[in-house]
């Protein structure tokens, strides 16, 4: 019997399926969820700080837009950088550095003595927030394949909790204590990540991809112990080791995959710091992944442009900008943010999450995303002309619901199409492209609305959202029910 057991093997995916979702996963979900709450709060507060500073410091509309844009500029740098660190040195080191940067810069921005220093600290906050994809990929790598879509939607619910909590916090803090207290209090969740960092485990999938199967096995045994289950019989192996037995070791695919201890040349190449960035880009832009990568970049751009644009539109259209009014009166009303309307539209993310949860594992990733993009276009159509305040809030509520669903699903889909060796790099780079959308949307949401060009702004949103839906339909791969892999998946349906 022992020899027979010794000849059996199992992968990380098979181990996760055998152990199921248990107490260990609840702890991992809580930790990763705290990071998602932190990022949502730091992004949501931009809706409140800009108008407050316009009144307190007398900044222009362009300077107000720049406060948001520098955060996205920092995220543009941070997203791919932290993804590279995570793929090379581990998920834990990646999110340790992101949490440190976000927490410290977030608190220091509350003490900023002037506009320039505030821009600097908010840009650093953006660099830290760029590590969000690292934690989402880390959590994803612990989830059994059959329920991955549903649990990733539950994970995304923490973002919604963050937006609602930030709107509630601003509602109580801004009228009495002011924007500095809002910035300081909003940095607390990132600090909690540092407090509990020591108990966060490394991803066993990452360890396997680096040939560190002994360490990976130790973590899997811990998962089984906390979940009250057992590992499958046999020996733990990586997908890469299985592939090496099935394919020619000298094939092109082998050199694109993450190294194992049995492949000394590949290991040397992967651990060379001068080739890490280039080799990751070569995989992401290789013939098997090129189409998916380019389409994913546009979808991330469209999602970020639309989501953050709708958030900013809500604050702008609820403080006197829903119709064109004289400039002097508009200046007087710029501080009059409707916390009620922003709070209500924040709740729009809850039905968005429910829709994503219901459709992602039933209709699939592609059908769910594309349908939500097209329905979002329909919700925005009435805003081509000025509407009463309540109708404007209602239409923005519907659009926010749809774009939340697409954002949730794309963060499930993106890690599923990439192999472990470049997963966080791929998602990080796509997220970086999304940040370009986030950088440009304030110029639309604030600049055009202030210039009495609401129709032009809405038309631009319609075009971007519609094209994003078309790109989703062109994705070559549906990942519903597929296991995560250490090698490049065939790019077909």
Automatic annotation (TrEMBL):
Q: Name one Pfam family in it.
A: Sugar_tr
Q: Which SUPFAM superfamilies match?
A: MFS general substrate transporter
Q: Membrane-crossing residues?
A: 15-36, 66-83, 95-113, 119-140, 152-173, 179-200, 294-313, 372-389, 395-414, 426-449, 455-475
* Lineage top rank: taxon: Eukaryota
Q: Where is this region: Disordered?
A: 247-271
Principal cellular location given in the protein's record: membrane
Q: What GO CC annotations are associated with the protein?
A: membrane
Which sequence ranges form a coiled-coil region, renumbered to this chain? none
InterPro entries recorded: MFS_dom, MFS_sugar_transport-like, MFS_trans_sf, Sugar_transporter_CS
Q: Does Transmembrane helix show up as a keyword for this record?
A: yes
Q: What is this protein called?
A: Major facilitator superfamily (MFS) profile domain-containing protein
């Amino acid at each position: 019997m022992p020899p027979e057991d010794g000849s059996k093997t199992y992968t990380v995916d098979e181990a996760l399926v055998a152990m199921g979702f248990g107490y260990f996963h609840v702890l991992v979900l809580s930790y990763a969820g705290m990071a998602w709450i932190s990022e949502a709060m730091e992004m949501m507060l931009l809706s409140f700080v800009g108008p407050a500073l316009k009144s307190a410091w007398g900044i222009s509309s362009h300077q107000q837009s720049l406060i948001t844009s520098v955060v996205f500029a920092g995220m543009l740098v941070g997203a791919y950088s932290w993804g590279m660190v995570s793929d090379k040195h581990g998920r834990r080191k990646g999110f340790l550095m992101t949490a440190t940067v976000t927490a410290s810069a977030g608190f220091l921005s509350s003490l900023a003595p002037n506009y320039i220093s505030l821009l600097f600290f908010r840009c650093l906050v953006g660099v830290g927030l760029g590590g969000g994809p690292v934690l989402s990929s880390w959590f994803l790598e612990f989830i059994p394949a059959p329920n991955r879509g549903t649990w990733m939607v539950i994970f995304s619910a923490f973002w919604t909790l963050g937006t609602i909590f930030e709107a509630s916090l601003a509602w109580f803090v801004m009228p009495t204590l002011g924007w500095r207290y809002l910035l300081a209090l909003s940095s607390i969740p990132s600090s909690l990540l540092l407090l509990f960092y020591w108990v966060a485990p490394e991803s066993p999938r990452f360890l396997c991809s680096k040939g560190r199967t002994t360490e990976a096995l130790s973590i899997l045994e811990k998962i089984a112990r906390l979940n009250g289950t057992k590992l499958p019989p046999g020996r733990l192996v990586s997908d890469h080791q299985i592939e090496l037995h099935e394919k020619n070791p000298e094939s092109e695919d082998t050199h694109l995959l993450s190294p194992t201890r049995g492949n000394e040349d590949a290991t040397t190449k992967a651990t060379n710091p001068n080739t890490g960035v280039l080799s990751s880009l070569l995989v992401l832009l290789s013939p098997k992944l090129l189409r998916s990568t380019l389409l994913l970049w546009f979808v991330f751009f469209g999602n970020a442009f639309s989501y953050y644009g709708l958030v900013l539109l809500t604050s702008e259209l609820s403080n006197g900008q829903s119709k064109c009014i004289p400039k002097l009166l508009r200046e007087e009303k710029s501080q009059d943010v409707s916390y009620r309307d922003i709070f209500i539209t924040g709740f729009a993310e809850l039905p968005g999450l429910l829709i994503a949860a219901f459709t992602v594992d039933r209709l699939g990733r592609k059908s769910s995303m594309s349908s939500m993009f097209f329905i979002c276009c329909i919700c925005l159509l009435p805003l081509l002309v000025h509407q009463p305040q309540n109708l404007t809030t209602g239409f923005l509520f519907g659009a926010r619901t749809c774009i939340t669903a697409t954002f949730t699903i794309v963060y499930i889909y993106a890690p599923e199409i990439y192999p472990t060796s470049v997963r966080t790099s791929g998602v990080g780079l796509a997220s970086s492209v999304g940040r370009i959308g986030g950088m440009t949307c304030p110029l639309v949401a604030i600049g055009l609305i202030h210039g009495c060009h609401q129709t032009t702004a809405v038309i631009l949103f319609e075009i971007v959202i519609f094209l994003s839906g078309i790109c989703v339909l062109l994705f070559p791969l549906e990942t519903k029910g597929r296991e995560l892999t250490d090698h490049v998946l065939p790019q077909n349906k």
